[in-house]
Amino acid sequence: MLYLAYKSFRDNTSALTIKEGSSLSYSSLYRKGVIMNILNPKVSLFFFAFFPQFINSAAGHVTEQMLVYGFIFLFQTLIIFSLISVFAGKLGHFIRRSSVHR
């Protein structure tokens, strides 16, 4: 992956072209991101393999524990992905303005 990233940065012809008639609105990009995240097998594997170790059946309702831990996971994921997207946008803006980028 690092090689592909390096190669894409060094490629001078990597301009983004958009087909006529296609729309790249923030809502459509967000929807695509959510669908990709839902279909991501790593998340399912985490919930099936690692997540149940934190559930304590002696502490009460297992369903409530799963929901609470699920919402905590959802909240922290939302914060982390938001921070990553903000910093990636700032980095992209910096790279586009940089005179080093050819």
Q: What is the compact description of this entry?
A:
The protein is mainly alpha-helical. The protein is built from 4 helices and no strands.
What is the N-to-C succession of helices and strands?
A: HHHH
Overall strand count = 0
Unreliable residue stretches: none
Number of helices: 4
**Domain unit count:** 1
Strand content: under 5%
The helix content is: 55-70%
What general form does the structure show? elongated
In round numbers, the mean pLDDT is 80
Give me the Rg, rounded.
Answer: 20 Å
Q: Tell me the distance between the termini.
A: 21 Å
How is the biggest beta sheet arranged? none
**Class inferred from helices and paired strands:** mainly alpha
Would you spell out the secondary-structure blueprint of this structure?
Blueprint: H1 2-10, H2 26-38, H3 41-50, H4 62-97
Structural account:
- The model has no long low-confidence stretch (mean pLDDT 80).
- This protein is 67% helix and 0% strand.
- The chain has helices at 2-10, 26-38, 41-50, 62-97.
- The protein is mainly α and 102 residues long.
- It has four helices and no strands.
- The protein starts with a helix and ends in a 5-residue tail after the last helix.
- The radius of gyration is 20 Å and the shape is elongated.
- The chain has one domain.
